[in-house]
User: Fold this.
Amino acid sequence: MEAPSLTANLATPVAEEEQRLLRKVAWRIVPLIMTCFIVAYFDRVNISFAKLQMQSELGLSDAAYGLGASMFFVGYLLFEIPSNLILVRVGARRWIARIMITWGMASSGMMFVQTETVFYILRFLLGVLEAGFVPGVIYFFMQWFPAKQRGRINSFFFGASALSGILGGPLAGGIMKYLAGVQGLSGWQWLFLLEGLPSIILGFVVLFMLDDRIEDAKWLSVHEKTMLSNALNREHKVHTSHSFGAALRQPVTYMLSLIYLGLCAGIYGIFFWMPQLVRTAGSADPFEIGLITMLPYCAAIIGIVLIGRHSDRTGERRWHLVGCVVAGLVGYVVCATFGDSTLLLLIGLSIATTGLISSFALFWVYPPRVLTGVAAAGGIALINSIGQLGGVFAPYMVGRVKDLTGSASMGLYAIAAVCGVAALLIAWGLPRAVHFIESRETPDAS
Assistant:
């Protein structure tokens, strides 16, 4: 009886030391990556606000706007896998920095749009240059954090998209309202010009602040490097595939891709159409619309932290994820049914935004469990690429439906149906092997 007790007593300081080390690593990496993601999602927020002015100035239909929004994801989809495979070769630090600098330049270049064709070309180019960022970050987290920590880390990371909505909405509305006409530029042109500068600056910060490997981190002692490497090596035993070809041969890769497509359709319907839905409900001032759109993202910030923490503490992922996607479905139905009421619309948007942003954090715990090495980089990129098809069809579909019917309701109902299919696939479509790996994860109560 004494030996197990002695072992337990000895293990406690080691566990506490490991937790302190993981907190140190998290504080070094996560705030910077979150800031990068906030800047990345400024583009998602800003294009929806720019629509309020540029659509009338350039004579764009709702379908043309939706197609331009979708062209970003076409470029993103085509170059996602090559981008992530290059990342493995050159290192996440250099490649993430390159992505941010070049997409910042392309974002600012959107100020020169004058025709529908140029709008499509620049949106496509922006997708090409940003391709690989999210899966690159997920792969980077795999190199630094054990699986039991990634639910919470992912929650903070994807929660940055909600912070982007909180900050970006009022900022975009304010720029468009108060800088319109300054130096002969429209408000939407100032919006695009200013949105690209932070990502260029942050690209250079990433280059100097992050490290590709634990061995390269001068801010860790030799003992800390060994402890962190051991923590990561222990969990790699449960992973199954090591090559990109192996990832392509696994049916679970494609099931996860279909699920992610549904999640992307849901979230991008919100990102690209929220300001327009709020304006249709009765608000006309861009700055007022920006303030109103803050509210669903504020709700999402609270929800994503609580849901991520509860999922990590219990070790349960699947039904947390199903619940979040069902919340997206319910939110869309409310928005489609009560689109003329600002209050009820906001309730629907808050439910959908909270559920869908939280679902991203939970979803990205799954792929690294069954993919590692080159399979992780390529497989995660493949999943993300197929998922981005949701970003291709959802914005265009809503715009097309609005052009034909004068209302976005039928498009919103369609996205709700897509969320429902995704929830069913999560609940009953994932193979038992994924559930088995999930059940082996030790809940982390820290």
Remarks:
- The CA atoms of residues 92 and 212 lie 6 Å apart.
- Residues 18-232+244-440 form a domain with the Growth Hormone; Chain: A; fold (CATH 1.20.1250.20).
- The radius of gyration is 22 Å.
- The chain has one domain: 18-232+244-440.
